Amino acid sequence: MILFKKAESLSRYLSQQKNEGVQIGFVPTMGALHQGHISLIEAAKKENRLTVCSIFVNPTQFNNSSDFQHYPVTTDKDIEKLLAAGCDVLFLPLAEEIYPPGFLARHYDLGSLETVLEGHYRPGHFQGVCQVIERLLEIVQPNRLYLGAKDFQQVKVITRLLHLLGKQDEIAVRMEPTLRENDGLAMSSRNLRLSAEQRALAPVIYTVLSSIKEKYKAGNKSLPQLEEQAASELEKNGFAVDYLQIRDADTLLSPTADSKHIVVLTAAALGEIRLIDNLPLN
User: 52, 62, 172, 245: least buried by Cβ within 10 Å?
Assistant: First the structure.
């Protein structure tokens, strides 16, 4: 695995590879890697001759400074995992490589994606996501981009970003399934911050989402009732629920008679640790 810390050096190397017809798969991360991230590396390796991973904790997407300050950094372990997975290139930049002097942030027209769910509860978050992803795409110029379904709304935002940049035909988005622990908890870097007691409670999120799916498939289509019951169950177990909503999987707006795919999404906190998850209902 080749490690790059400078954007210019990485761009030069990858441009040479692309000129020789090499297909590039890209997995952007903020580190604290787990098996979910590694599954993205493995997916990229199946489709591309060169797999690139980046580790950069992006300050512009944190609307909570405490969350940014406490985000887990496990770089040495991350490198070991990437080596074991057969990753080809690691980009490990400092902030000034991503946001060089004179960098001007711009506003991205994300439509309703920015006002619902995560967008509502984390104002400015998706603007920061778009900033860093646009910059990383400039540097890496991948053929395919690999993202995890746990961050469902973020995948929708990045797909929208590619259209805004006119790159939807150049870069294919691959949304890979959420990987879960044996007890159902969605793998997340934030899980490292859970206390033993919180970790024991955390799988209730998946239990509640699974219960909604079972009821929905059994014919209970009263979405407000399903949402209310599930949120109440989480609160009984000590979660502070930001949202638990059943939405059209394409628009993330309320489902209509024309909605083909339905998904339930939630964000709920145990103490200071905010966890997100989602589950398709059909």
Answer: 172
What are the backbone angles phi and psi of residue 184, rounded to the nearest 5°? 100, -15
The whole-number average pLDDT for the span 50-61 is 96
Of 37, 70, 120, 163, which is the active-site residue?
A: 37
Token readout for 233 is: 């169950």
Q: Classify 100 as helix, strand or coil.
A: coil
Q: Is 107 a catalytic residue?
A: no
Residues 211, 244: contact at Cβ < 8 Å? Answer: no
| pTM, full prediction | 0.96
Which long-range contacts does 208-211 make (Cβ < 8 Å, 24+ apart)?
208/233, 208/234, 208/244, 208/266, 209/264, 209/266, 209/277, 209/278, 209/279, 210/184, 210/279
Cα separation of 194 and 187, whole Å? 12
Q: How confident is the model at residue 69 (pLDDT cuts 50, 70, 90)?
A: confident
Q: Find the helix or strand (DSSP H, E) in which 25 lies.
A: strand 24-29
For residue 116, give the 3-state DSSP assignment: coil
Closest CA relative to residue 29, chosen from 132, 114, 112: 132
- How many Å apart are CA 85 and CA 39, to the nearest integer? 9
Predicted confidence (pLDDT) per residue in 146-204, tens digit:
999 999 999 999 999 999 999 999 999 999 999 999 999 999 999 999 999 999 999 99
Instruction: Give the C-alpha separation, 154 to 252, whole Å.
Output: 11
